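Title: Comparing notes on inverse folding

I've been comparing how different people in this forum approach sequence design from structure. To keep things fair, I'm posting one structure and asking everyone to reply with a full sequence. Here's the target:
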């Protein structure tokens, strides 16, 4: 049973706790430049617009050039946020209009006319419900830094101050940014643009559940509970995950942390240094599986506070917000984090051992049933995230592999490869060495793993990371006393049912091919994504009868399937095959050795192992 959670109360006490903490000193150069300050207003939030006024120091120059970021760190796709910006205007402090001209797709050049500062006003359309973009409606606003704030071009860091003017119906603004000097309400100071981008801002009427772990303040901040979401239980479970990750790492890398949770019937999570932005359905706490998945995302994003926000590949920061940041190491920062997501939920005492093994089995099955694993090494999947992972099409399963999925499975196998040392030990050693300004370069994390394990893992990493060889599960299974349960269908004496290997979907009563995986009978027969399946042999088949009809054929039968392809009727000759075995469900072996039991316990429940 989950412990009772704290009752919601004002966020002011948490803010107070934050201001009482000593401020972290910023880079020396940040102190020398005057801040740029923004005022954000929502005069008609139902129209999805933010109106922004920026006071921009001219620094004695004849012109200033401002840019809008093209992407959000953590989400590796050029998204062209400038397309939502409109009506950029500039005036002198005396109100004289200044010339504004576009100088590239995402830049504006403003003549200063000798003024020491310019006032720039613009509007941003905010209606994209994702954790990296913006959304404004009558009840609330969710703002991310990258798609919201124009900033001076150039590397010189300067403070960015933000003041939010709330509509009268809204009570609060919430962000991980510290308060700006001066103590005005809803006013925040980011030490530099990176910090601003790394701290999303929510405004509206949130419900906040503060809690403290080892003296460090945290809060779960929910927007949209709507009388449906179970706030106290979710806050108590989030706190247990925080305690578990504190136990794993031995310290918190931040001074306070916010879980900004949007209950908006969308999904996702994005990591930041001192907060995370999450999205789910308001009904999630009422469904065990969905709830565990959400807690897994909470756990994943929190783990990123260590792994990627501080222990990071050198390519991932400082960022060029106008260009891609390529790295082969996302299998580590995303994949190992995906391994720890559900693991920490289990170690926190929330999910059962069966539920944890089911989550891990799902990751293994997703990897082993994706043909692209034999085409794309996971290091390359990471490098090509910008053009492949975030730009999927119907052929993606055949040609790519997810660095989340394969990276998580590699985490499990690596865990069992280190002998007496755990993956926790490897990560802590890597954190100690590479969490500073420099970051780690390709190969350096692997070298730490070898040192900690006391064996040369170079060849192991070459195969797992840089080749398309199948992963070898046997050593890990033997180490923990696990096995893959045999396919339940194997006990069945009935002949194998027919299988084409097509993914299908229904659209307005039509049965459509949604995916054709390489190596399946459907691929060999020449099915195309988008084909409408009309008949098998001379007999019509609709969406409701498709599965049942396939069950009436047997592997080895040959048939003609009639499809409509862009309205033209096409006959495809197909030979049914046999579905590959569903053999990726992990379970403990019947009679494990004492050593296997000890290792399994130490892995899954380290907090209770002496
Ligand atoms: Zn992640």
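Reply #1:
Here's my take.
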């Amino acid at each position: 049973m989950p412990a009772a959670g704290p009752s919601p109360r004002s966020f002011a006490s948490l803010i107070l706790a934050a201001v009482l903490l000593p401020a972290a000193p910023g880079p020396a150069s940040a102190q020398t430049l005057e801040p740029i300050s923004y005022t954000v207003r929502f005069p008609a939030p139902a129209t999805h617009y933010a109106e922004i006024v920026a006071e921009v120091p001219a620094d004695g120059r004849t012109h200033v050039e401002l840019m809008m970021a093209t992407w959000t760190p953590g989400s590796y796709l050029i998204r062209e946020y400038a397309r939502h910006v409109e009506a950029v205007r500039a005036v002198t402090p005396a109100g004289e209009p200044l010339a504004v001209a576009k100088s590239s797709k995402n830049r504006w050049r403003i003549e200063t006319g000798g003024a020491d500062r310019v006032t720039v006003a613009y509007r941003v359309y905010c209606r994209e419900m994702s954790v990296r973009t913006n959304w404004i409606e009558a009840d609330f606003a969710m703002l991310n830094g990258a798609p919201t704030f124009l900033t001076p071009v150039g590397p010189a860091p300067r403070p960015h101050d933000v003041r939010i003017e709330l509509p009268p119906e809204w009570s609060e603004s919430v962000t991980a940014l510290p308060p700006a000097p001066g103590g005005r309400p809803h006013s925040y100071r980011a030490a530099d643009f990176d910090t601003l981008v790394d701290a999303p801002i929510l405004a509206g009427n949130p419900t906040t559940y503060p809690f403290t772990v080892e003296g460090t303040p945290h809060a779960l901040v929910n927007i949209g509970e709507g009388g449906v979401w179970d706030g106290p239980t979710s806050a108590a479970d989030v706190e247990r995950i925080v305690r578990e990750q504190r136990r794993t790492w031995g310290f918190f890398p931040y001074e306070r942390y916010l879980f900004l949770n949007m209950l908006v019937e969308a999904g996702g999570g994005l990591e930041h240094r001192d907060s995370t932005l999450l999205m789910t359905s308001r009904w999630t706490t009422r469904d065990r599986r969905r709830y565990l998945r959400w807690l897994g995302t909470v756990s994943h994003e929190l783990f990123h506070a260590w792994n990627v926000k501080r222990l990071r590949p050198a390519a991932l920061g400082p960022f060029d917000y106008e260009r891609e940041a390529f790295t082969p190491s996302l299998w580590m920062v995303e994949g190992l984090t995906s391994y720890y997501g559900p693991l920490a939920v289990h170690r926190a005492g929330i999910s059962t051992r069966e539920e944890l093994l089911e989550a891990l089995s799902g990751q293994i099955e997703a990897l082993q049933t994706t043909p692209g694993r034999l085409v794309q090494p996971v290091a390359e999947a990471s490098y090509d995230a910008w053009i492949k992972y975030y730009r999927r099409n119907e052929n993606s399963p055949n040609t790519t592999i997810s660095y989340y999925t394969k990276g998580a499975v590699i985490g499990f196998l690596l865990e069992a490869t280190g002998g007496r040392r755990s993956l926790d030990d490897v990560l802590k050693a890597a954190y100690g060495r590479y969490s500073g300004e420099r970051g780690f370069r390709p190969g350096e994390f692997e070298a730490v793993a070898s040192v900690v394990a006391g064996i040369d893992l170079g060849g192991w990493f070459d195969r797992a990371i840089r080749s398309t060889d199948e992963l070898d599960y046997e050593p890990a299974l033997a180490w923990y006393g696990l096995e893959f349960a045999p396919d339940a269908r194997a006990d069945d004496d009935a002949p194998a049912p027919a299988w084409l290997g097509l993914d299908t979907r229904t659209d307005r009563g039509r049965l459509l091919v949604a995916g054709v995986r390489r190596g399946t009978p459907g691929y060999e027969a020449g099915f195309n994504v988008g084909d409408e399946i009309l008949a098998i042999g001379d007999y019509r088949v609709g969406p409701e009868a498709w599965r049942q009809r396939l069950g009436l054929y047997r592997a080895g039968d040959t048939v003609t399937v009639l499809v409509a392809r862009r309205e033209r009727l096409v006959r495809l000759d197909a030979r049914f095959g046999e579905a590959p075995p569903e053999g990726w469900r992990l379970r403990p072996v019947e009679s494990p050795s004492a050593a296997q039991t000890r290792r399994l316990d130490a892995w899954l429940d380290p907090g209770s192992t002496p």
